[in-house]
Design brief:
By secondary structure, the chain is an alpha/beta fold. Helices cover about 45% and strands about 15% of the residues. It is built from 14 helices and twelve strands. A hairpin with a 2-residue loop joins β11 (about 310-315) and β12 (about 315-320). α3 (about 65-80) runs parallel beside α4 (about 100-110) and α12 packs across α13. The chain is globular, with a radius of gyration of 22 Å. The chain starts with about 30 loop residues before the first strand and ends with a helix.
Length: about 350
């Protein structure tokens, strides 16, 4: 067994020192793009300032005969573009594919200093992360990368869900975990062909009326992903990394997309994937606390003073627990305000009222 003292030592001679705490940078939307698509690549300079994270996708949405073009395209884009405060991530091919080794060899050695996070699909165990961890250290040392590239796992198999707590705590590189509902549904043999979201057949029904057995009975659609998402959030929180909702596949159904993103936000997720520009605004709206929420949270913090005891505000009791809840909201608002001028103005205005 490896000593805990070695946990934060580089895994290769000359590799950068691992991080001791995952830096919180706004990542409300992880916007996917195909770097091998020249038309899409041309939009990156204009798109970058509008999103928190740009992710060059090399995996499932890229056909087998275009894998190399996508990889080469990402290198070209990373070298040419100034991303400013926007993070650059990539989703590499799965560890059982013939492309993943070339993905890592190429990207780390050629654009390692530009890459913030590498997203690893279909992670099933700590062993998958250990493999990536050691290989990244070796490549960082070889390329002279100055800071460690972080790792993000996608939870999209039943085996991965069963081991999510171990996966979350595997390495100092672990930045976060995303829910991958489509592949997870297939792995579990779930009977849905949707990418995220609910299903009209997954419901509960109101009990029959004892006075009128034939009266209509209301039904309520349930959330297929609640258990998995909540378990993933707990695993991330326990290990100091960040949880994300993954894709919502019905691009036209912006209402349901917003609902699903908001469920994830309320449960503790910090962001979600955006697959189309229309979802960027939804994620920005949902994963940013409203000015009213920030105003209320600041009132509670001010009234509570050192955070001990209890006070009454507008007929509601506030104590140590609500003080901590309000700190979460205010700290998130302050972090987002540093990146988003519109939010900063809205939050400042809320503080003046």
């Amino acid at each position: 067994m490896r000593s805990p003292k070695d946990f934060f030592r580089p895994l290769a001679v000359g590799a950068p020192t691992p991080v001791r705490e995952v830096p919180f940078r706004p990542s409300r939307m992880i916007h996917f793009f195909d770097p091998g698509n020249e038309k899409m690549a041309a939009k990156i300079p204009a798109l970058a300032p509008t999103v928190d994270v740009l992710l060059g996708n090399l995996e499932d949405a890229v056909a087998a005969d275009r894998k190399e073009a996508a990889r080469d395209g990402l290198v070209k884009i990373a070298r040419a573009a100034d991303f400013g405060d926007t993070q650059l991530w990539t989703r590499i091919n799965s560890l059982d594919s013939p492309w993943v080794l070339d993905d890592l060899l190429t990207l780390v050695t050629e654009i390692g200093d530009k890459l913030d996070v590498i997203m690893v699909p279909k992670v099933e165990s700590a062993a998958d992360i250990h493999y990536i961890d050691r290989l990244l250290a070796q490549l960082e040392a070889k390329a002279g990368v100055r800071r460690p590239i972080l790792v993000h796992a996608i939870l999209e198999t039943a085996t991965g869900v069963a081991g999510v707590e171990e996966i979350a705590g595997t390495s100092p590189r672990m930045q976060g975990i995303s829910l991958g509902p489509a592949d997870l549904a297939a792995s579990r043999r779930m009977k849905t062909t949707r990418v995220g979201g609910g299903h009209p057949g997954y419901l509960v029904r109101q009990d029959p009326d004892t006075q009128d057995a034939g009266a209509p009975r209301a039904t309520y659609q349930q959330d297929l992903w609640h258990y998995t998402l909540a378990r993933m959030v707990d695993a991330c929180a326990a290990h100091g990394i960040l949880p994300y909702y993954g894709p919502f596949g019905d691009i036209k159904d912006t209402t349901a997309c917003e609902d699903q993103f908001r469920n994830a936000f309320l449960l503790g997720c910090v962001g979600a994937w955006s697959l189309h520009p229309v979802q960027i605004g939804i994620a920005k709206k949902v994963f940013s606390p409203s000015p009213d929420e920030v105003r209320w949270a600041r009132r509670v913090i001010e009234a509570m003073g050192d955070g001990t005891g209890a006070v009454m505000l507008d007929g509601k009791m506030q104590d140590d627990a609500t003080f901590k809840q309000c700190q979460v909201v205010v700290e998130l608002a302050e972090a987002l305000a540093t990146r988003d001028p519109e939010l900063r103005a809205a939050y400042d205005a809320a503080g003046e009222e």
